[in-house]
Structures are given as structure tokens and as C-alpha cells.
């Protein structure tokens, strides 16, 4: 027996706007930039790695990284933050309540 037939809401001619306001993303900090770069450099694994395990691995790499490298990522994060401020001048981080 086949499952229920569902309509595709996107296929309709009248698109509805979401009821919530879409917030711009937060600017990445030094750790996020470092993690993104190192994630691309990790050798592929036969088995899928959990993101928590990947973060632990890269976190150890960050802790053992030279101070010059960390400072470079801090500079990159500052540049991203300045660009974010230019693009979204009225942005203010407001965490959502759970």
C-alpha cells in the first residue's frame, strides 16, 4: 500500500513568506575559521566521523598550534567581524530561548 499523497508547497504559484524574521548569521570566530580550514585538510575516512569527534580532534590541533597561527586566525576573525558589521550595521546577537 502506498503512503499518502502530499502536495509540494513550493510548486504552487503563491509562495508564502515565512512568519518569522530571518536573522543574519553570526560572524565566525577564530576557532570556527580554524576548524573550517582543518576540516578540509583531514584525510577522508572509510567510516563516517561524528562531528563531535571531528571537533575534538581539531580542538587538540588548535591547543597545540603555534601562537603565530592562532593570532593569524584572530586577525581573520576580526576582519570577518568588521565585514559583518558593515553588511549588517544594526545586527545584535539575540540568543533564542529554548
Automatic annotation (TrEMBL):
GO terms for biological process: cell differentiation. Residues 24-92 form the HMG box domain. GO terms for molecular function: DNA-binding transcription activator activity, RNA polymerase II-specific; RNA polymerase II cis-regulatory region sequence-specific DNA binding. Residues 1-28 are annotated as: Disordered. Keywords: DNA-binding, Nucleus, Transcription. InterPro entries: HMG_box_dom, HMG_box_dom_sf, SRY-related_HMG-box_TF-like. PANTHER family: SEX-DETERMINING REGION Y PROTEIN, SOX TRANSCRIPTION FACTOR. The lineage of its organism: Eukaryota, Fungi, Dikarya, Basidiomycota, Agaricomycotina. GO terms for cellular component: nucleus. Residues 24-92 bind DNA. This is Unplaced genomic scaffold scaffold_66, whole genome shotgun sequence. Coiled coil: none annotated.
Amino acid at each position: 500500500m502506498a503512503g499518502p499523497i502530499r502536495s509540494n508547497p513550493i510548486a504552487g504559484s503563491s509562495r508564502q513568506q515565512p512568519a518569522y524574521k530571518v536573522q543574519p548569521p553570526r560572524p565566525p570566530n577564530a576557532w570556527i575559521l580554524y576548524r573550517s580550514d582543518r576540516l578540509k585538510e583531514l584525510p577522508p575516512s572509510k567510516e563516517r566521523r561524528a562531528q563531535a569527534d571531528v571537533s575534538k580532534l581539531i580542538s587538540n590541533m588548535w591547543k597545540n598550534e603555534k601562537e603565530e597561527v592562532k593570532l593569524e586566525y584572530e586577525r581573520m576573525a576580526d576582519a570577518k567581524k568588521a565585514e559583518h558589521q558593515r553588511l549588517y550595521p544594526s545586527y545584535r546577537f539575540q540568543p533564542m530561548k529554548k
